[in-house]
Design brief:
two-stranded antiparallel sheet, alpha+beta, six-stranded antiparallel barrel, 229 residues, Pnp Oxidase, Chain A, single chain
């Protein structure tokens, strides 16, 4: 099996990915996906930091496994991150998933991954640490999971470089998820600060061109914020 460095992932660098885990309701399993930053530790280990009270955090705690998906379509990041069934925002369609079968904890497991990803890394939890993240947008409690690579494969060469509009769209998605947390915590000052930053990004994006994926993304961000109010 190739190492993370063989795939061009550098130690101590941060990458934005889609993390897929298994959810279960009434004994029925189904995939859940969230946008997530990962940091490479060495050839076989990486770290992720999902927030408390998220489905991704719950699933990793319960199942101990996750697939790390590298995606070159920014709209998939929006669908994964800004899903709310009660608002009709359903996330990534079920037909966009495939499953990888492997043994973990002595049993056969089916781990979901996104078929449109250009590279996938399947991981298991080996350690976890409770942390507090501080930045200029507030304080967030999270769990830092240390993950060991179980298997990986590169489906295609991406060769894609995100342009400025796509990078800002991705940042807007991440900020929108923080906006929800600020609303849940009734932190109106933080909510206003994040909303202002998103507005600035969206105005800049509209000046950069007519990328269809980006336009779909900012429309989804706007809908998500509208429902939060």
């Amino acid at each position: 099996m190739e190492t993370l460095q063989d795939y061009g992932l550098n130690r101590d660098c941060l990458y934005e990915v889609l993390a897929c885990t298994i959810s279960k309701k009434n004994e029925i399993e189904y995939p859940n996906t969230a946008s997530m930053g990962i940091r490479i530790i060495n050839d076989k280990l990486l770290k992720i930091k999902p927030y408390y009270n998220t489905i991704t955090h719950k699933n990793i705690k319960e199942n101990g496994m996750v697939s790390i998906n590298f995606i070159d379509n920014v709209f998939l990041f929006a669908q994964a991150s800004l899903k709310e069934i009660k608002w009709g925002l359903k996330g990534i369609p079920i037909e966009e998933y495939l499953y990888y079968n492997y043994k973990y904890r002595g049993k056969n497991c089916n781990c979901p991954y996104i078929k449109d990803s250009w590279m996938v890394i399947f991981c298991n939890v080996v350690n976890e640490t409770q942390i507090v993240k501080n930045d200029n947008l507030g304080t967030i409690n999270a769990t830092e999971f240390e993950l060991e690579v179980n298997n990986s494969f590169k489906k295609k060469g991406s060769f894609k470089l995100y342009n400025r509009a796509e990078n800002l769209a991705l940042e807007s998605i991440i900020l929108a998820t923080r906006l929800k947390i600020a609303r849940q915590n009734k932190d109106e000052l933080l909510y206003s600060k994040i909303e202002t930053r998103i507005d600035e990004y969206l105005k800049m994006i509209t000046r950069f061109g007519k990328n269809v994926s980006v336009l779909k993304t900012i429309n989804l961000v706007k809908d998500y914020i509208k429902f939060l109010k």
